[in-house]
# Entry
Amino acid sequence: MPILQVSLILLLLSVGWAADFSGHVVSVLDGDTIEVLHNNRAERIRLNAIDCPEKGQAYDKRAKQATSELVFGKEVTLITHGLDKYGRTIADLSLPDGVIVNVELVRNGWC
# Structure
């Protein structure tokens, strides 16, 4: 089977496994980790494909503040991509106005 066909099949399968949901952001743990209310409980979310400064690194508090300003207390829509090694849901986040949070954090230099 040609590589292109295999790649297309894998892409279609991965899209089929993605689970979308919306929820209220109840906590921002750091620049790339938040908690969203899902099924009446806080679910830990790791933002997909970005890496913001961790606690103790330079600009960690500013990255967390930037994420908080974008999402804290707001309703977000998630496109999930499975779990990371710590059991957190990996997701792309969007706001009701269409802003993709992951992209916005990179665009503003926080990741």
